[in-house]
From TrEMBL:
Residues 388-437 form a coiled coil. The chain crosses the membrane at residues 194-213, 220-242, 254-276, 288-305, 311-334, 341-362. PROSITE patterns: GGDEF (PS50887). Keywords: Coiled coil, Membrane, Transmembrane, Transmembrane helix. Residues 472-608 form the GGDEF domain. This is diguanylate cyclase. It comes from the Bacteria. The keyword Membrane applies. Its EC number is 2.7.7.65. It is an enzyme of class 2 (transferase). SMART domains: GGDEF. The keyword Protein biosynthesis does not apply.
Length: 608
């Protein structure tokens, strides 16, 4: 059977169209270099292929026609995935001269990046790099992979990238193309900016370290630990750590980054708890924060086991919970009027925004852009600066509180001293008054209230010595109630006591001068001592006393006179001599008393 020519042509056309479509799917659009922006984002020009089994070789990826390549719809970001991903790009030098361009795979943390340059369908150059490989494998010593590509005039080249991970966490990987001059300019600006950033962070770190040593305040220590964790993490995150600090040891960078992320969560939580005083101000949030701190600690073993993807899968939600919780706590505490919380809010807000943007980029919610890429650094720089202000304020507050505490302590000390002094004064007065009372009791006769026998002995001795020294006259009179036994017998002992009190009062009312003393010597016997008194005046005074008792007319049924009377024996010396001791004087007065009794009572007899 003869096939019509038009049918054959149609079939051939259909076959060519089919072939064109298949090849067309597998071929990326060639990017013409002229007219590209500086830098040029190539993300949307790339084709992407997911290699679930990780079996494809670069040649297979290039030549197998059936592979399901698809166009990238922005910055590639495969986030959590166990596959290998291939990227293809075509570059066409449509200019008249040969040129060099620099292709950036703009992530410092992408584990494995295999770069293949394809000329005329053949791989002519391969570079295996990424942050799980030693730094010196990079064709350009830069913090993330950069591949220089030379293109002859009119030449088209293809770039094939193979992206793989340690255990399933991809980084967002912006693809950019720069001219050598553009790259130099960009890297110079970036170096200066990051240099300033790290310089400021190190200065802040040292400043706060010094403050923590000087003040011994836990809040400064925690802030230093937080800042140090953050700085180490940042060095890993930006790739400067691998480039400058551990170029031979990429494993160290991974251990550090997966250790510092939970450490940041931990130190940030502890710092905030202390700085905001959450325990007393928001106790419920404080308990939640304590649990989040424990969770952060539990993440550390994952870091040391190198379970990188698993760690980030759980630590991200932890951070996503922690940051809003801290900001909410600070907000509530600031509303309570606690000023440091206000500083905290202002300081943390930019970092929280930066962290939020970075998280969103990592999990693929938003596209990477320069602002998003540097948001964490911008946020943290602002945060550190503002927090330095907060720390200075905290220091001022600390000083003011210390001063206030010192003043309060001083006031309390003064009040205590005054109180103690008052108490001592009070006690002393009470003691003095008790002593005076005791002394008074010791020298007073309990029944009559006049001086007693003990006082008589002491006063006689003292006044005798004074008169002896000063040559003064001294008079001593011993008095005895007449017939007191019959009085008691007739009226009773109680009535006798009342008579004794009445006699004592009658005598005391007339013994008022400072040089005269009245004593009850015991029983119904009294004594009067007079210093610096003339003989006549002394005798008159005793007679007056005796008269006063008689004048009371206190009824005495057993006395011949019918009332209570006194008999008195008086001794007077113009100036006592050494021989005339108190005992001698008393004996003479007693003898005179005896004579008065003998002579009929109710009278006064003077010693010769
Ligand atoms: N009610 C009372 N009687 C007392 C007290 N002390 C002593 N007497 C009594 O005083 C009396 C003293 O008696 P005497 O020494 O014999 O002397 P008198 O009876 O006063 O006789 P003359 O002194 O010679 O006039 C005794 O009966 C004592 O018991 C006292 O405190 N209260």
């Amino acid at each position: 059977m003869r096939i019509p020519a038009f049918a054959l042509r149609a079939w051939l056309l259909w076959l060519a169209g089919l072939l064109f479509c298949v090849l067309g799917w597998a071929q990326p659009v060639a990017v013409s270099l002229s007219g590209l922006a500086e830098p040029a984002s190539l993300d949307t020009y790339a084709l992407v292929l997911e290699d679930r089994d990780k079996r494809l070789t670069p040649d297979e990826a290039l030549t197998q026609a059936h592979l399901p390549w698809r166009a990238a719809d922005g910055v590639v970001n495969f986030s959590f995935s166990d596959s290998v991903y291939w990227l293809r790009l075509r570059l066409h030098n449509d200019g008249p001269t040969s040129v060099t361009r620099l292709l950036e795979a703009g992530s410092a943390l992408q584990d494995m990046v295999d770069y293949h340059l394809v000329r005329q369908g053949r791989i002519v150059q391969t570079v295996e790099t990424g942050d799980r490989r030693p730094f010196d494998r990079r064709p350009l010593p830069y913090r993330y992979p950069v591949f220089p590509i030379a293109l002859a005039a009119g030449e088209t080249v293809e770039v094939l990238l193979r992206l793989d991970t340690h255990d399933g966490l991809f980084e967002a990987l912006p693809l950019r193309l720069r001219t050598p001059a553009g790259f130099l300019h960009h890297s110079q600006i970036e170096n200066v900016a990051f240099g300033a950033y790290y310089g400021a962070v190190v200065a802040l770190l040292l400043y706060n370290l010094l403050l923590s040593v000087l003040t011994r305040d836990r809040v400064f220590v925690l802030y230093v630990l937080y800042l140090a964790s953050y700085t180490v993490w940042n060095l890993c995150f930006t790739g400067f750590g691998l480039q400058h600090l551990w170029p031979e040891n990429p494993h160290l960078g991974h251990t550090l980054i997966s250790t510092t992320v939970p450490l940041i969560a931990l130190t940030l939580t502890l710092f905030s708890m202390h700085y905001l005083q959450t325990a007393t101000r928001v106790p419920r949030v404080h308990r939640m924060l304590r649990w989040l701190a424990v969770l952060a600690v539990l993440h550390l073993p994952l870091a040391w086991l190198d379970w990188y993807a698993a760690l980030f899968l759980t630590v991200m939600p932890l951070l996503a919970l922690l940051l809003p919780l801290l900001l909410a706590a600070a907000f509530v505490i600031a509303r309570q009027g606690y000023r440091p919380a206000l500083f905290y809010l202002v300081a943390w807000a930019p970092l929280a925004v930066g962290a939020g943007l970075t998280l969103a980029k990592i999990v693929g919610w938003i596209e990477a852009s320069p602002l998003v890429e540097y948001s964490l650094n911008i946020g943290s720089a602002l945060e550190f600066t503002l927090l330095a202000l907060a720390m200075a304020d905290a220091l001022n507050r600390l000083k003011a509180e210390k001063l206030q505490a010192e003043q309060q302590a001083l006031q309390v000390q003064r009040a205590l001293a005054a109180d103690l002094e008052a108490k001592v004064r009070e006690r002393t007065q009470a003691l003095e008054s008790a002593n005076a009372q005791l002394q008074q009791v010791a020298i007073t006769d309990a029944l009559t209230g006049v001086y007693n026998r003990r006082s008589f002995d002491a006063t006689l001795r003292r006044e005798y010595n004074r008169c002896l020294r000063q040559g003064l006259p001294l008079a001593l009179c011993v008095m005895d109630i007449d017939h007191f036994k019959p009085y008691n017998d007739a009226l009773g002992h109680q009535q006798g006591d009342q008579a004794l009190v009445a006699v004592a009062q009658a005598l005391a009312a007339r013994v008022q001068r400072s040089t005269e003393y009245l004593f009850r010597l015991g029983g119904e016997e009294f004594a009067v001592l007079m210093v610096d008194e003339g003989r006549e005046r002394a005798l008159r005074q005793i007679e007056a006393l005796r008269d006063a008792v008689e004048a009371m007319a206190l009824e005495h049924p057993a006395s011949p006179r019918g009332c209570v009377t006194l008999s008195c024996g008086l001794v007077w010396v113009a100036q006592p001599t050494v021989e005339q001791t108190p005992d001698v004087l008393y004996a003479e007065a007693d003898k005179a008393l005896y004579r008065a009794k003998q002579a009929g009572r109710n009278r006064t007899e003077m010693a010769p």
